[in-house]
Amino acid sequence: MAEIDRDKLLDVYTRTMKVNRTDEKFRALLMEGKVAVMYYCVRGQELVSAAAMAALDEDDYVVCTYRGQGEQTAKGIPIKKWWGECLGKETGTCKGKGGTMHITDPETGIMVTTGVVGSGLPIANGLAMASQNNGDGKVTLVSFGDGAANIGGFHEAMNMAQLYKLPVVFLCQNNRYGEHTAFADHTGSTDISSRASGYGMKGIKVDGNDVNAVYPAMEEAVEHARSGKGPVLVEAMCYRMMGHFFGSDFSYMPPEHLEEMAKEDPLPKLRAVMLERQFTEEELDKIVADIDAEIDEAVEHALAADLPSTDEIYKDVLEEVS
Amino acid sequence: MAEITMTEALNKAIDEAMAEDDGVFCLGEDVSDKQGGGVFKVTNGLSAKYGEHRIRATPISETAIVGAAVGAALAGQRPICEIMLMNFVGVCMDQIVNHAAKLRYMSGGQTPCPMVLRTTTGVGVGFGGQHSDMLEAWFAHVAGIHVVTPSNAADARGLMRASIDANDPVIFIENILCYGLKSEDPGPGYRVPLGKAAIAKEGTDLSLITYGRTVLDALEVASEMEKEGVSVEVVDLRTIAPYDEETVLASVNKTGRAITLHEAVRPFGTGAELAANIQEKCWDSLKGPVRRIGGTFAAVPFATHLEQAWIPTKGEIVEQIKASVGKD
């Protein structure tokens, strides 16, 4: 396998750390009691999101889930607006009406963040159908977890996407849990990617903790979809290193599983690859420090921002026709 | 101008919208000419004219159909999706209720969802319990969508154009028994604005508020009652939600009596909402309680005589009118 281009590798690293530092900051704020909102941790899945977003063009579409922080920040959503939304402020992407589970920012291609498991796949088809209809050349990537592979919409969407050869990448982040239920307890399948063959679709299974595997796989999938050959189902194997949502009990995750996860942690692995590729410790630390500074500023901005005016509850229900 | 049927009216409205805007396209089961142009022929001939990309025959996958419409709408197109029979919305409610209806709001206005969901239903064709229900109240209860139903061919043409123009999701309900109804063709470009009711017949003694197929029953009964000296005003809502409150309240304030009538089952139906609102806002004009007429609170039965007994009958409408105006 050819080495990842050095600039691209740096890009993936930067996006990964953006996701990770955002996650760390969010958990710190929750721990300190500075904010009290629902937050679905992405610890362990940072690299998958970053690699996927790095493989897309800026104007490609993304559909993600409540555990979508990774896709959102790695795609390049303006972080002041992101934090504003997560804190329910007027400055948020959605004026505080969407919240952590419903971040939308069409300017950066974040079209839908759904709170309903599996609902994003059929919508991704529609975005891709629009691109196919108008020939704009965009790819739509929809991210979801292994749990979503068991809902009916998954099947309907996969079948339809292949039928029309829609430019969609279905990215299953197999983090081994559907809410509190372990993979082996929610399906008899050994993997999700092999389901692609049932639809006549290209399926790829990849180690989501290894940048040298996951980035090329994402690039291949995006290229396949963009070229008109049809959709691809990518199953990126990763771990959700925390509970379902921040603060939720995760005693159901056995200790040996937690140990295995720690060994596979994508972040130290990625750092090792960066050092191998002659990036220096100083360069890498500087990237993280710059990200932290930007996040701190965005958080301060969001904490100080105004709450949305209460008359917002009546706005945006339907178009106001004068 | 020539006469057209409701089927032709809908077909013409979709055709002219597709001709004017490349972003308008249809998707649904059996909609292309290859499968006969839709089970009720509403999209007949359109795939020949616009190609299979713009008249997309889909697998039997309601969630994927509505989801695709939602996604395409977010990308700025104007999809018209078809759920063959209204009961099948049970399969795709998540996409309608959690997504189509809410994406404008949850995004703070960034992602409107301009799509039409056409669906067909109706009691009186012997389709039984899973192909006949009027489920408009389910959607009227959800903020963020328009619910529309025509009672005649001209309105069908105008309401369809207005629905395609709308920048929000529209649930467009077609009644199977109305497809053959004829009107004078209102011609190209005709639009009936959403949210505007029609006074189908003027009257002074009682307002009979209805929509869809039961407008026909209402008009028939109103003309019979005229002979008995009772002047019934028939209000055709056309848009069930959000409905034309101004026209409804003005009618009731004028007549002082109101009956709501729909084919859907009576309990928790749209008639209940109308009645409650009328009683709150027209109390001083009302001469008696607002009455409600609706289908029997049971699944729609198959046998013809059972099905006919299930629907609100003209006899029942007459009875309620007489009770309301104090005649026996």
Secondary structure: elements and pairs:
The complex is a heterodimer of chains A (322) and B (328).
Chain A: H1 6-31, H2 46-55, E1 61-65, H3 69-75, H4 79-86, E2 110-114, H5 120-134, E3 140-145, H6 152-164, E4 168-174, E5 177-178, E6 181-182, H7 183-186, E7 202-207, H8 211-226, E8 232-237, H9 255-264, H10 266-276, H11 281-304
Parallel strand pairs in A: 1-2, 1-3, 3-4, 4-8, 7-8
Antiparallel strand pairs in A: 5-6
Helix pairs in contact in A: 1-2, 1-3, 1-10, 1-11, 2-3, 2-8, 4-11, 5-6
Chain B: E1 3-5, H1 6-20, E2 24-29, H2 46-50, E3 55-58, H3 62-74, E4 78-83, H4 93-100, H5 103-106, E5 116-121, H6 136-140, E6 146-148, H7 153-165, E7 170-175, E8 182-184, E9 198-201, E10 206-210, H8 214-227, E11 232-236, E12 239-241, H9 245-255, E13 258-265, H10 270-281, E14 291-295, H11 304-310, H12 314-325
Parallel strand pairs in B: 2-3, 2-4, 4-5, 5-7, 6-7, 10-11, 10-13, 13-14
Antiparallel strand pairs in B: 1-8, 6-12, 9-11
Helix pairs in contact in B: 1-7, 3-4
